[in-house]
Write a structure and sequence with these properties.
The protein is an alpha/beta fold. It has 2 domains: about 120 residues, Aspartate Aminotransferase, domain 1, CATH 3.90.1150.10; about 280 residues, 3-Layer(aba) Sandwich (Aspartate Aminotransferase, domain 2). Helices cover about 35% and strands about 15% of the residues. It is built from 12 helices and 16 strands. A 7-stranded mixed beta sheet has the order 4-12-11-10-7-5-6, sandwiched between helices. A 4-stranded mixed beta sheet has the order 1-2-3-15. Strands 13-14-16 form a 3-stranded antiparallel beta sheet. β1 and β2 form a beta hairpin. It is globular, with a radius of gyration of 21 Å.
């Protein structure tokens, strides 16, 4: 075994199990940063990649195209609402957000309103590690604060303090609604002439703190964007493809009132966690707006955009997801996370326990010592990777009840031991 402060060497992975070089097995609670929703070594995805590899692994996606990309576009537009009907295939989640930002900037520039070139976001968000996306993170507590002096700051609205349990849509009182939306309204009223778009993670704030907020906030934000002429960008990179219990997290609003973003970014689980691929999906309004200056060319073109192997993996992953009882699986995981993590509420040092879909979160009162806690989880036979004050689980959808029980029991045992 390597020194516990070092990385652990993985020999193989299959289903929900990671096998280390020494032969020990770990139940994976992270889905490789939330992406491996079908688990590992998936025959259908492997076969799709191998079949495409025998034809060609890559061609430039400029003046040329290929069947896997065309088929992927059709699949994605089939599972998103009709207003979202144009897409850009990107390399990674961070790049998909960069493309979304560029779309918004080009949209307003083509309308001869170049002054609308800033963004507004909500505190506690996280949108990636590239230069423009770093600027959108929490300026004080985010992981990129060492770069603050050189990043162009967005306008930051308060974090939505309307916690949601995934069930009670009416739990957000009228007074809370007024207070929460007045803060955002005031910022938009003051800055709307310079703002291109509001960007946020719908319903679930991921790496910025794993907070779940009431869908009513998103509905109100959509209306304010329309009122003040801003585009709404939703970052579904972590939440897309069923993680929150809906295919996309913004769909939680449909129980109250339908909301559709102007631009949506997806990634992570798009290929089932096998290869890097993401997409930025937008509306005809945005595409026509970008073309209003007579050019219409989106100014972005990475070398490996639309990679055929990645597109083939994505097609297989989407087909596998849609053919599976994924909603029932996520619901089962949600129920078992609620039961299994409930004892954490009685542990000293635990501030909160939250569960939504296939997301289980334990928020500690103090930051976690990674060098201390990581080997304790490995000794329990599980792979859990906490950060800051959070111990969280985002297991593959195919995880068995027995494996999930081992994960939650390990979390309870390790946190109890530390306290």
């Amino acid at each position: 075994m390597l020194n516990p402060v070092d990385s652990y060497l993985v020999r193989s992975a299959a289903g929900s199990i990671l096998t280390l070089e020494d032969g020990s097995e770990l139940v994976d609670g992270m889905s490789s940063w939330w992406s491996a929703i079908h688990g590992y070594n998936v025959p259908e995805i492997n076969s799709a990649i191998t079949t495409q590899l025998e034809k060609f692994s890559h061609i430039m996606f400029g003046g040329l195209t290929h069947t896997p990309a065309i088929e992927l576009a059709e699949r994605l537009l089939d599972i998103t609402p009709p207003p979202l009907q144009h897409l850009f295939l990107a390399d990674s989640g961070s790049i998909a957000i960069e493309v979304a930002l560029k779309m918004a900037l080009q949209f307003w520039s083509a309308q001869d309103r170049p002054e609308k070139n800033r963004f507004i976001t909500i505190a506690g968000g996280y949108h990636g590690d590239t230069f423009a996306t770093m600027a959108l993170a929490d300026p004080e507590n985010g992981m990129h604060n060492r770069f603050n002096k050189v990043l162009r700051k967005p306008i930051v609205a308060p974090r939505p303090e309307c916690a949601w349990d995934g069930k009670d849509y009416s739990a957000w009182s009228s007074s809370e609604t007024t207070q929460q939306m007045n803060a955002l309204n005031k910022l938009l009223q003051t800055h709307h002439k310079e703002l291109a778009a509001l960007i946020l993670e719908p319903i679930v704030q991921g790496a910025g703190g794993m907070h779940f907020y009431n869908p009513n906030y998103l509905i109100s934000a959509r209306k304010l964007c329309d009122k003040y002429e801003l585009l709404l960008i939703t970052d579904e990179i972590a939440t897309g493809f069923g993680r929150s219990g809906k295919m996309f997290a913004y769909e939680h609003t449909t129980a109250i009132e339908s909301v559709t973003p102007d631009i949506m970014a997806i990634g992570k689980a798009l290929t089932g966690g096998t290869m890097s691929l993401a997409a930025t999906i937008t509306t005809k309004k945005v595409v026509d707006g970008i073309a209003a200056d007579g050019d219409g060319t989106l100014m972005h073109g990475p070398t490996f955009m639309g990679n055929p192997l990645a597109c083939s993996a994505a097609n297989a992953s989407i087909d596998l997801l849609l053919a599976s009882p994924w909603e029932e699986r996520v619901k089962r995981i949600e129920q078992e996370l609620q039961t299994g993590l409930a004892p954490c509420r009685d542990i000293d040092g635990v501030a909160a326990v939250r569960v939504l879909g296939a997301i289980g979160v334990i928020e500690m009162r103090e930051p976690i010592n990674m060098r201390e806690i990581q080997p304790l989880f490995v000794a329990q036979g599980v792979w859990v990777r906490p950060f800051e004050k959070l111990v969280y689980l985002m297991p593959p959808y195919i995880i068995s009840s027995k494996e999930l029980k081992k994960l939650t029991a390990a979390v309870v045992a390790v946190l109890s031991q530390l306290q």
